[in-house]
User: What shape does this take?
Amino acid sequence: MTNLKPRIEFKHVAKEFFLQDDKTFKELIPSLIAGKAWAKKHIVFNDLSFTVKTGESIGIVGDNGAGKSTIMKLIAGVTYPTTGSIKAVGKIAPLIELGAGFHYELSGYENIFLNAAILGMHKSEIDIVLQDIIDFSEITEFLHTPIKRYSTGMLMRLAFSIAIHAPADIYLIDEVLAVGDRKFQKKCLKRLKEFKNHKDKIIVFISHSQKDVKEFCDRAILLDNGKMVLDGTPADVFEKYNSL
Amino acid sequence: MRLIKKLILPFTSHKYLLYQLTQREIKARYKQSFIGYAWVMLNPLAQMMVYTFVFSVVFRFPTGGIPYPVFLFAALLPWTTLQVTLNTATQSLVSNAILLKKVWFPREIIPYSVVISKMIDFVFSSFVFFGLMLFYQVPLSKTTLLFIPLFLIQVVLMTGMSFFLSTFNLFYRDIQYLTNLLLMVWMYMTPVVYPMSLVPDRFIFIYKLNPMVGLIEGYRAALFSLPFEPSLIFQSLFVSIFIFITGYFTFKKSEKVFADIV
Assistant: This one.
């Protein structure tokens, strides 16, 4: 792991997408003849600046389409800002959507290695936390069953367990707690709170659940119409959000 | 220096991911169906029987004394590898869309894992070929080993084309159908089912521009101790390297928008 203190810095970040309407030639050719551009521009946000320091857990609040997930993608480094700059210091572990990076024909055990490798772990790193992952996910008796026979809850538990055992400095948690039973959700929040108490990591949290954000984050950002409306305590942010 | 570091990244810091994705590609295949991995050998075997009937019983192509099934298989196996690799690689980025949107890793690992897993399939399916050589009592010679460097040229070519096809397919899904069409035409433009000696002299210059011609002829020369045509093989090598380099840079340049357009 890096000795650098994890840190996220957005400086005047603007992000535009090209929305491509035509995914096949059948649609593309008529629209080229009609003189339409191959894609439309869509502005997600135009001037976004904020800094997240070591030990902070920050919630991102806003309507669907406000750019919450785009922020996650920018931090993860899978997409790039149109203008402005982003610095993310530290190893990043995104909690990947349920089952992405899983192969349904493979067993839970095999999928632990596959998914952990996708999160950037090496064999030796996985071996260290393997037992913890299995215990945390509570799937021990189905460990060697192909995951196509798993329930949604089991898949979610497995995915979550792998991600939070990845040795990272920055954790990106996008709406994943929505699935799974209440008991497991509590267990996850407890685990995340342990991270938080260590004060050496950053947790970025997206959730529609006011309760989770208030309970878990000590700071929140409110996005609306491509702008950051407020950067403050979760209580203030939700008060503003509800009045929008 | 930085370029070299970037170029070998998938084999250094991300080698475990490459290993896992390759393994997924192979395991998925044999876990999905009843006979599973045997398909790797059954497919070319069935094709061989059909082609043998058509081109040695019906048409009777001259093969210079080599039994037609062996003559065909020497080309059909590497060709099938090319076909399967390009078809799978074309769809590889699209089928890993969710990963592209969530996690950072060197994107070329995805097409690489396809190429490597198909190379492994190739090794297994070539056991059938050696069985066939034994059955027809075709002697192996020292030049047989030259098959390996020739196949490596094909790997470079396949990887380069995979860069282009997987990227383009992300923008327009029609590319996967186009790939199928291209492969069908390309196969008949390559001496896979027939000997190159049947190609009329006035076409031969254009015909030889196809990089697979030199490779397929090279495979046969290596396996049946026939004379090599080195200039043709070098031409295939240069074309393959050219496609690899241009493909790599196209891929790396487009990589930045993969997550936005997928």
Summary: The radius of gyration of chain B is 19 Å.
